[in-house]
Amino acid sequence: MWLRLIVIATCLFMSTPNFSHGAEQHVLGTITAIDATHVEVKTSKGQSVNVRVNKKTQYKDQRNLKVANVPEVGDRVVIKAPKDGKVLDATEVYFSAAKGVPAPISPTPVN
Q1: What total of structural domains would you count in the chain?
Q2: pLDDT at 105
Q3: pLDDT, tens digit, for every residue of 24-59?
Q4: What DSSP string describes the chain?
Q5: 94: Cβ contacts below 8 Å, ≥ 6 apart
Q6: Is-contact 38 88, C-beta < 8 A?
Q7: CA distance 87 to 15
Q8: In angstroms, rounded to a whole number, what is the distance separating the alpha carbons of residues 56 and 29?
Q9: Is the pLDDT of residue 19 over 70?
Q10: Does 44 map to a domain?
Q11: CA angle 72, 42, 53 (to 5 degrees)
């Protein structure tokens, strides 16, 4: 009897986190355009995704969490956005500056 109760309770608690995620989507990529109403992100697959932003959107700079900054073109982002029909409305935008890629070193001939 107790074993059945424990197994049922365990199954219920394990499935709970799946329901809490909801209809929220995550957009990962690099910002290609930004203004007061939207952010355009290029994903690693090469797709361009438009996400609307508003006054309730929270920006979180991963370099400096205490200062409220706004991302710039070229920054890497993770955007949390519930899907409203075909439109994504951002609730949180996590961003950090893209690290500069060093220029390739030309090979030197070996004698």
Answers
A1: 1
A2: 64
A3: 888 999 999 999 899 999 998 989 999 999 999 988
A4: -HHHHHHHHHHHHHHHHHHHTTTEEEEEEEEEEE-SSEEEEE-TTS-EEEEE--TTPEEEESS-TTS-----TT-EEEEEEEEETTEEB-SEEEEEPPPPPPPPPPPPPP-
A5: 60, 62, 77, 78, 79, 80
A6: no
A7: 29
A8: 22
A9: no
A10: yes
A11: 55
Residue 47, domain member (yes or no):
yes
Residue with the larger pLDDT of the pair 15 and 75 = 75
Q: Report in angstroms the alpha-carbon separations of 67 from 37, 52, 58, 59.
A: 21, 22, 12, 10
| Residue 45 belongs to domain spanning | 24-96
CATH number, domain with residue 87? 2.40.50.320
* Mean pLDDT computed over 61-85: 82
Confirm whether 12 is domain-assigned. no
Side-chain half-sphere of 58: how many Cα atoms within 13 Å? 7
Q: Among all chains, which residue has been given the structure tokens 């993770």?
A: 78
Contacts of 4 (CB under 8 A, 6+ apart): none
Can you give the pLDDT at residue 80? 92
